[in-house]
Design goal:
Length: about 350
């Protein structure tokens, strides 16, 4: 007996044709399911971040903001890879790292040149100043796709990489849990230049929760040291030009003392600032100069106290105090200048 079926188009097929129709329908459903099910790197609503350097609204699953919104990190975790977008309020380079300091951090550094071309590098941060690309260290470039753009004073960088690349210089990323991150951006496209802003924090890859580390400002350190320099310099000037005044010694001692206090606080804040950022103490000439300057301040103040006592009132101690005071002022000037050159 032949089996007949009339479909919606009014066509009559025999049993064999009907079986083929059923098989093709099942195959169509399977293919459709594969396409509809979110693939690696897709957003939670089924869309895939387009890595073209333009970060659209709701393109990524999550967003974290740092520095009052001046630096933003977007991300979508896929089955085996992760797509990340970076936005910074600058027309210079932008950097993102996995780690809690600039030492031994997995870094991505990108910028957009004057013609609109984007460069995105897979790097490894050996120190706060040295960020070679992985390939120069014997590793591999594991950026699968990347893009960048600039608009309205902002730089946008996007890239995709595997969660686990197998490269020694790439930190593995888990699909869930917290990830320690560092970030920075500069004012020019020269990524070897000093950063304008930097910071660190922790992001939860699943919930999107953000914990920003305490912000430290080099401006506070600079302010304290400059005030110390002004006070100590003024104290020296009074000692050299106002000795005929009855009040010169009291003013000299007060200015020198307060100048030393500001300098000590400034040095202490610098130590704290490095501890919570790069954790690379004495990695720059400025830091060594600062330490030497603080030692000179201590010696100068100690000599000043000594000469007020009968045992230390000799011309020898007074001469030492004067020269250490002068050298200290010069050292503070050099140290401040060296620090300014890092900005």
């Amino acid at each position: 007996m032949r089996f007949y079926h009339k479909n919606q188009f009014g066509l009559v097929n025999n049993y064999r044709s009907f079986s083929k129709f059923i098989a093709l329908s099942i195959l169509f459903v399977i293919i459709t399911a594969i396409i509809v099910i979110p693939a690696a790197g897709e957003n939670s609503d089924g869309t895939v971040p387009v890595i073209n350097g333009i970060i659209s609204a709701n393109e990524y699953d999550h967003k974290a903001e740092f520095a009052g919104g001046d630096f933003k990190i977007y991300w979508t975790v896929g089955e085996s890879n992760i797509s990340i977008g970076l936005s910074a309020k600058t027309n210079g380079w932008v950097a993102f790292g996995i780690g809690n300091s600039m030492t031994d951090a997995d870094m991505i550094i990108g910028w957009v040149n004057s013609t609109g071309g984007a460069t995105v590098l897979d790097c490894y941060s050996e120190s706060s100043r040295d960020h070679p690309v992985d390939e120069d260290l014997g590793g591999t470039d594991d950026i699968e796709s990347s893009g960048g753009s600039e608009s309205d004073g902002w730089t946008h960088i996007e890239f995709t990489r595997d969660l686990s690349t197998g490269d020694t210089y790439d930190a593995p990323i888990k699909k869930s849990g917290e990830l320690e991150v560092i970030w920075a951006y500069g004012s020019s496209d020269n990524f070897n230049a000093q950063h304008s802003e930097f910071g660190s924090g922790t992001i939860n890859l699943v919930t999107g929760e953000v914990e920003e580390d305490e912000e430290v400002r080099w401006q506070l350190h600079a302010f304290l040291m400059i005030i110390g320099l002004i006070l100590i310099g003024s104290g020296n000037a009074i000692a050299g030009a106002m000795k005929k005044k009855t009040w010169w010694f009291s003013a000299h001692k007060t200015l020198e003392g307060f100048g030393g206090v500001f300098a000590f606080i400034g040095f202490g804040y610098a130590f704290y600032m490095i501890s919570v950022s790069t954790n690379e103490h004495f990695s720059e000439p400025h830091t060594f100069l600062g330490l030497i300057t603080v030692i000179f301040i201590v010696i100068t103040l100690r000599l000043g106290k000594t000469i007020t006592k009968p045992a230390g009132s000799s011309k020898k101690f007074k001469a030492l105090h004067r020269w250490f005071g002068r050298i200290t002022t010069i050292m503070m000037l050099i140290t401040v200048y060296a620090g300014y050159s890092l900005v």
